[in-house]
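Support request from a user on the community tier.

User writes: "When I paste my structure tokens into the form, the page sometimes reloads and wipes my input. The last time it worked, I copied everything first. Here is what I submitted, just in case something in the input itself triggers the reload:"
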């Protein structure tokens, strides 16, 4: 059998894949910690900045520069591990992972290998009312690499580029890598399970306060491992690893795509190549990266310049007391407080909107109103733009302010949607947009009365029906008034005026 990347195969229908194969998932999520300084030096660990302005001899790997472990990063790692129900090592070490990293100036990564700080944990995720236990193999500390920019090509990748630029600002930023064991038995729900796990993990990381967890800024990045095995065989197939998938939606799409691609390769009698792959957001496909190395290829050995990390049991228990509410228990509590049905809560969680709705409610909006905006108007816009809700630029404070204007009678839902147009256009706060666009509902009796008189005069047949007691016909006149006043009339007052004039 031949073994190549097979990027040109014709995908197998998803249902056909499920009839013949069992998928196995594995997820590796890198969390960039929000410490003030880098993992092993005092350089600022802030996003952005002029290229190579946040560097020093240590993170540049210059001879004689000695690393020192960031204590806050260790604390964050332990809190993440505890929140994931992990065991916390009483003693662990860092290791050197040797590999040619063009954007890692030391040409090795300081990581953890056989002695991670956190191990043997789990997280339960719910998909369509079914609970899947995702077992956590390990959560270990390491440092991020720098960033390469490839110049001169048409794709932004190294192939075809004239030259490359390297920014070492990110090199040395503290990372926690959370690695799952194979997730088996998900079947058709495998793509949704992957998305739900990453979304719930992000919510947990944000609740812990250890990272901004902004996927669009690379604070949280997911590598998706996928393999297929013959239906019912109970074995694991050869896996591929799709690197740096940066949205919940893309995680789901990448799993689905790789399932269909793997099946196409296997159905043709060929073998899957163990390799890393690149996800392309614009086309929704993966392409080959490089053959995937096994652990022994990295020539791990203990880092000689760092002492072991040995957190005391007293400190670990002290940190356990700082953990936020368990996400599963929190969802149950919020559902009860908000009065959501199982389906409403499931849809809210599935849309990645739970935290957004919670923040909006905390700012004064009614739960159903907050849910309506995030899962309706804003979810539609996010879907059209191919973005996550958290990346839209509209905040819970904005949504709460818009709903407040609806609640006090300044806006109706139709006008509120125009306020969202203004928010996306960067026209200011909701109140400023209402003033600038003259969107407020007209409640002045004089103006409404004149508009009602015009509608009655223009629709005498309808007016006669109302005089005869057919009050349901008032809807036609209300519609005429709303149209003439660009939707800015107080519909309740308009109805009162119509009935008063014609009864």
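"...and here is what came back when it finally went through:"
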């Amino acid at each position: 059998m031949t073994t190549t990347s097979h990027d040109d195969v014709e995908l197998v229908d998803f249902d056909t894949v499920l009839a013949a194969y069992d998928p196995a998932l594995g997820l590796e999520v890198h969390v960039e910690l929000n410490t003030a300084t880098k993992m092993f030096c005092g350089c600022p660990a802030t996003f952005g900045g002029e290229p190579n302005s946040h560097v020093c001899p240590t993170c540049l790997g210059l001879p004689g520069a000695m690393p020192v472990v960031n204590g806050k990063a260790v604390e964050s790692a332990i809190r993440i591990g505890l929140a994931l129900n992990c065991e916390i090592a009483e003693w662990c070490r860092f290791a050197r992972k040797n590999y040619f990293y063009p954007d890692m100036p030391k040409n090795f990564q300081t990581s953890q290998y056989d002695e991670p700080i956190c191990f043997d944990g789990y997280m339960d995720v719910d998909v369509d009312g079914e609970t899947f236990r995702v077992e956590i193999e390990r959560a270990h500390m390491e440092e991020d690499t720098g960033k390469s920019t490839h110049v001169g090509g048409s794709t932004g990748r190294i192939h075809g580029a004239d030259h490359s630029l390297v920014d070492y600002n990110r090199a040395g930023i503290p990372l926690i890598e959370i690695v799952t064991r194979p997730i088996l038995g998900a079947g058709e729900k495998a793509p949704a399970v992957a998305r739900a796990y990453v979304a719930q993990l992000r919510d947990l990381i944000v609740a812990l306060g250890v990272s901004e967890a902004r996927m669009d800024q690379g604070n949280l990045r997911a590598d998706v491992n996928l393999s297929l095995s013959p239906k019912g065989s109970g074995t694991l197939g050869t896996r591929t690893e799709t690197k740096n998938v940066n949205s919940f939606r893309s995680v789901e799409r990448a799993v689905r795509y790789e399932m269909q691609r793997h099946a196409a390769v296997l159905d043709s009698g060929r073998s899957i190549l163990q390799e890393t792959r690149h996800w392309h957001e614009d086309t929704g496909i993966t392409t080959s990266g490089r053959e995937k190395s096994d652990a022994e290829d990295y020539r791990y050995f203990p880092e000689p310049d760092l002492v072991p990390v040995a957190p005391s049991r007293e400190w670990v228990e002290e940190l356990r007391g700082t953990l936020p509410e368990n996400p599963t228990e929190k969802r149950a509590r919020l559902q009860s407080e908000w009065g959501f049905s199982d389906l409403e809560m499931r849809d809210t969680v599935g849309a990645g909107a739970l935290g957004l709705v919670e923040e909006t409610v905390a700012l004064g909006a009614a739960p159903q109103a907050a849910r309506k905006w995030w899962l309706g108007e804003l979810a539609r816009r996010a879907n059209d733009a191919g973005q996550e809700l958290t990346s839209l630029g509209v905040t819970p404070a904005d949504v709460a302010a818009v709903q407040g204007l609806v609640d006090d009678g300044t806006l109706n839902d139709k006008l509120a949607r125009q306020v969202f147009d203004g928010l996306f256009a960067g026209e200011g706060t909701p109140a400023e947009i209402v003033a600038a666009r003259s969107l407020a509902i007209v409640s002045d009796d004089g103006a409404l009365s004149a508009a009602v008189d015009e509608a009655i005069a223009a629709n005498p047949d309808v007016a006669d029906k109302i005089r005869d007691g057919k009050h349901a016909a008032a809807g036609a006149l209300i519609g005429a008034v709303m149209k003439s006043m660009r939707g800015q009339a107080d519909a309740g007052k308009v109805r009162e005026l119509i009935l008063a004039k014609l009864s």
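Agent notes: The reload is a front-end session timeout and is unrelated to the input. Residues 348 and 354 are 6 Å apart (CA to CA). The chain has 16 helices and 14 strands. Escalated to web team.
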